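Journal club side-thread
Mid-discussion, someone asked how the predicted structure for our own chain would compare to the paper's figures. Pasting it here so we can look after the session.
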Amino acid sequence: MNDLLDRARRLTEPDAEPDPTLAAALAHTPDIGIAREAGRLLGRIDPTLVTRPGTKLYPLRVAVASSFTADNVLPLLRISLLAAGIDAEFQLIPPDQLLMQLSDPNSALAQSTPDLTVCPIHEELFLPRDADTADLDTVRDLLEQRLDLFGAALSDFATRTAGTVLVHTVPLPHLRWRTVNAYRSRARLGRAWRELNSGLLELADRIDGVGVLDLEMLLTDAAVPLRDDRLYRFGSMAWSPAVEQLFAGQVAAYASALTGRSKKCLVLDLDNTLWGGVLGDDGPENIELGSLYPGNAYSELQRAALALRAQGVLLAVASKNDPDLVTQVLAEHPDMLVRAEDFVAIKANWEPKDGNLTALAAELNLGLDSLVFADDSPFECQLVARSLPQVTVVPMTGDPSGHVGTLLAGDHFTVLTTTDTDRERTELYRARVHRQEWTRGHSALDGYLSELGIEVTVRRADEYLLPRIVQLGGRTNQFNLIGRAHSAQQTGRMADSAEHAVFGFEVGDRFGREGIVGALWIAKHTDHWLIENAVMSCRVFARGIEFAVLQTVIDEAAATGALRLEADFRGTGRNGPAEKFLADAGFVAAQQDSDPDGTLRHVLHLDPRPALSPAWISIHTDESMKPHV
């Protein structure tokens, strides 16, 4: 374990060599003291030294406002966030000021304008130390009052910040519970405490911009004590180091979802991963699946994969196997739960798996950092980890009964919310593959696009469309004018404002619907409209869709008397397609130098009115918008 600390120390030396696996190793080490010390050292280094090759760090301002002394949480948070590809700038708010910091618009927390505010809280925020836990009626009233007070402060802060606030359910320490002697009274106390946590969980639905981690649920599976009583009495540290580490990992998973860094595709091996045994040696009739061990362990993994698929995770196969036998098993085996149509791509051949993963990512137009690869073979896992460090590798070794837990433990696919587009994603990507196959038979692009029958519908954001628009803003990297996302609160406020407009657009063609694939955030001024950001999914590139949508915006802006469109652009190193779009549409830079954050304003004059919509695209607008001219 000291080796990890030595590796961290070496990174503080001049001309240090990168160590891209260190952050992940520290995030999972059982020696939390070393992890904490190393985390403090990593706060002094260039974060790219611990970033996996091909991964761009996402900057995030993080405030930690707690109800107890949470200083030791920060270095663990830094480690977990770096392992997730997030470079955090931290502000630690002094403990025991949480409610005041949330309520006061001039507090240090309010002035720091964080992207993410993390609120570690303990039971004394709701049940003071001197409260009599045996007086159950008073306890229940006290919990209700304190929850209302906390919810009001949280709501007040959420309406004033453009960022997201993350809170959590609160475990009740066993010593508080054991001071109640009667079992019936313990049951009443437990019920009252769960009502408190149910109220905390409800905050995510009641208050825009608030997320809730279910820490109480997470601790049911973690064989760790909630509290080190010596540390609590000595330094008011309400959590044991193990809980601090668990919490840091969960915050990092949430931050990954918030910043659009969640993984998108689960690539599965077959032999001894999706089923037991080796198909080529054992034959289709002898692979292990079904209701008896170990077959039921593989069946459970398939159920988990299908559950992920239903929530928008793409499934694919990368297996060294006979493709005909694989096709036979997926179609005919009576105990198979997943079938060929559940996968967006199946790479069953004898080629190296790193090459298959590269081809798969290109075929689906996904970055390698969007893939999670699960395989039982240490050789294959090591090959992919070395050759494609951007890919997240999950070794499925050991007893197959633990495979599901191993796969899900990393929270690789967590998102803030699930939309209708997520539920349809497999069909959308399968249609994409069919389009590519059809394209290969059409040499003339314009003729191909005309025959494709593309229809684009532009819609104003409403309560049903907003979650998908926010999700697109956070997850889109290549076609993203400013390289960052408007928060859910900002987007909602703009959608409700007469001085702003938020548009989403969906695409369909002869192969089916693509769903909502892009969005624009616009500020309306008397003589011009400003496109604060525009995003579009890479899966609909090269069809002219962005120009058709821009034409709709041009026509509506001109109808209100606007003389020009303005658009902000900030280069990120990954959003070249968005920059090219502005140039191709006729926007020109309105200033010589960019703003301090790299943003450069561009202008498109509307007299004469530009005509940009391609002839092969049919444009539609919803009833709330003026018709396309």
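Post-session note: The chain has a mean pLDDT of 91.
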